[in-house]
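Handout for the seminar on molecular recognition.
Each group receives one record of this type.
Step one: identify the two inputs.
Step two: read the structure output and locate the region that could contact zinc ion.
Step three: write two sentences on what you found, then compare them with the reference statements printed after the record.
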Amino acid sequence: MKLATIRTSAGTRAVRADGGVLTELGFDDVGALLRSGPDAVENVARTSGAQHSLDDADFAPVVLDPGKIICVGVNYADHIAETGREPPDFPTLFAKFTDALVGAHDAIVLPSVSDMVDWEVELAVVIGRDARHVSPDRAVAVMAGYTVANDISMRDWQNRTTQWLQGKTFEHATPLGPFLVTPDEVGGASPDLELTCEVDGVLRQRSRTSYLVAGPTAIVAYASEVVTLRPGDVILTGTPGGVGAAMDPPVYLRAGQVVRTAIDGIGELVNECVPEMP
Ligand code: ZN
């Protein structure tokens, strides 16, 4: 099943996508749907409601207000190599705030205080059930599904200190969506999907989600040792090689450029970079 959150004249709405038709499900966003109960997704598999055309859809972040956005750094071997880091003994976890999120076709705001804004295509997991101390082999049962994220990173701010938060959570700069796709449609616990990032049509990143060092279920299990994961929480699993900071010389995003981040079987984010307004 494919779910999304769209903006309508009456506000945001959670919808189910069936081909080119989007059907409203009675919730303001996919997050509210997931929080309505442990079988929320199954319960809306065949419900009917007001319909919209996919062609006209204005996508909001697939979850508007995740309680937590947990991110994993340096989690593909080629990206670890290009950053010059050693393979980690443990997943590198950091976080974002919800103010960072934008929809699948929204603008990425280039902050006036940064001139090193970089791209990072990532597979993201959306949590569907409460999860605490869950084992890796049970983790897929607490996952509502997968979506696409672009973990836009302000490298000058990220690398000011050993903690990355300030370079990772600038406002209106992390596209998330357009669809939540349930695991059964894209390889279950171990998806093997091509993920790509293009800037103005030039391919910058191409890898497969099966090359993750710590895969989705390992990350969900690891994070659930720290804190209870709740429905609607989002986990970004890390980016493969090909980021702008690792190019020689480094290349960063400029106003007017369009970034396309995509994962086969899930969807694509197409976002124009715009300067921050004073
Ligand atoms: Zn990242």
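Reference statements: The chain has a mean pLDDT of 97. The pocket of zinc ion is lined by residues 71, 120, 122, 151, 236, 238-239 (CB under 6 Å).
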